[in-house]
């Protein structure tokens, strides 16, 4: 049986006043679906998409990018220090060791199975291939636990009307053995979920299932279920989330043994008109306590950003740009 536990206030875990801006990305539009993480001690934001000329409802065309932006110091200036192997967006990015993993993703025509390890060497970011995913995949979720990378869900092709229920892992210490297929989450197959890893467990939150809409194009079913996976016990369903939170920054940061879910789209304004007046996505923060299986309210954000990673850099949480409202990106970078 699904359980729902009431939302309560969590005093002073994260407040809007604690967030501060970092230098904005050097693009007036900013990017959604970018890859981000840390390599060589520097903050990296690579690839992603935007609408450089017109919004989508005005006939604008989405553009994919391959530029790799690097910020060496928090007070510094973003520099372009390389390119991805090809324009790419909406995959999974994870900081591991002294490198940044770029997993899957895609462009307007196809999704990718390739996996790359980015390293900062002097004034240039290099890309080294790792074993590819079992299938092309984008809009999935990912996390790393104890040197093992996990990837869940997503879609194989840009026009798919059903998400994949796949759950894959790769042990980075034995990367040559490739990816393993693990038992899938028993819940609905989904895209744009959030993941986290703590104390040997992997967590999967929210996202959206897909189905064919009246026009034959993919339509979303908004999810607020939550799950935990361990290698010994498999999947276990947790307390439902108080709110849907699709495309929230992921993987979720961990603070004081709490998993922080930063914003996300709750779907309430999905059909908002006029589109250019959309109010943006919810600015709420939620925290999940794995020990008590309880969700708590933990503050209000000074930004509205989705389809962007959450990055740990210099002991702080970084939210590097993203989608501020449907179609509209932001070059803002925040940390706390």
From TrEMBL:
Signal sequence span is 1-20
Record-given protein name: Galactose oxidase
**Xref: SUPFAM superfamilies:** Kelch motif
Keyword terms, alphabetized: Signal
Note the coiled coil stretches, chain numbering: none
Pfam families to which the protein is assigned, alphabetical: NANM
What is the organism of origin for this protein? Brevifollis gellanilyticus
This protein's source sits in the domain of life called: Bacteria
Q: Which InterPro entries match?
A: Kelch-typ_b-propeller, NANM
């Amino acid at each position: 049986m699904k359980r729902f536990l009431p939302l309560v206030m969590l005093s002073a875990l994260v407040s809007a006043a604690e967030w501060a801006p970092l230098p904005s990305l050097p693009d007036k539009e900013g990017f959604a679906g970018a890859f981000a993480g840390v390599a060589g001690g520097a903050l990296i934001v690579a690839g992603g998409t935007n609408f450089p000329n017109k919004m989508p409802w005005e006939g604008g065309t989405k553009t994919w990018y391959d530029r790799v932006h690097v910020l060496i110091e928090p007070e510094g200036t973003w520099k372009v220090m390389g390119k991805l192997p090809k324009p790419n967006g909406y995959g999974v990015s994870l900081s591991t060791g002294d490198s940044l993993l770029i997993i899957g993703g895609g462009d307007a025509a196809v999704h990718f199975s390739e996996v790359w390890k980015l390293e900062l060497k002097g004034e240039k970011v290099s890309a080294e291939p790792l074993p590819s995913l079992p299938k092309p995949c984008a809009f999935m979720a990912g996390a790393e636990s104890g040197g093992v990378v996990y990837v869940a869900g997503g879609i194989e092709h840009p026009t798919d009307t059903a998400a994949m229920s796949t759950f894959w892992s790769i042990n980075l210490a034995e990367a040559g053995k490739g990816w393993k297929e693990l038992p899938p989450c028993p819940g609905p197959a989904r895209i744009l979920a959030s993941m986290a890893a703590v104390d040997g467990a992997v967590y999967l939150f929210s996202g959206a299932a897909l189905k064919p809409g009246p026009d034959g194009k993919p339509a979303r079913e908004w999810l607020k279920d939550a799950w935990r996976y361990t290698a010994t016990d498999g999947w276990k369903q947790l307390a439902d989330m108080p709110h849907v939170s699709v495309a929230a920054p992921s993987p979720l940061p961990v603070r004081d043994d709490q998993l922080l879910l930063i914003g996300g789209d709750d779907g309430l304004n999905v059909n908002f008109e006029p589109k250019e007046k959309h109010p943006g996505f919810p600015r709420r923060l939620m925290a999940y306590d794995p020990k008590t299986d309880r969700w708590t309210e933990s503050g209000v954000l000074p930004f509205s950003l989705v389809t962007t990673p959450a990055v740990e850099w210099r002991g702080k949480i970084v939210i590097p740009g993203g989608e501020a409202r449907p179609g509209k990106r932001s070059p803002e970078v925040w940390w706390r």
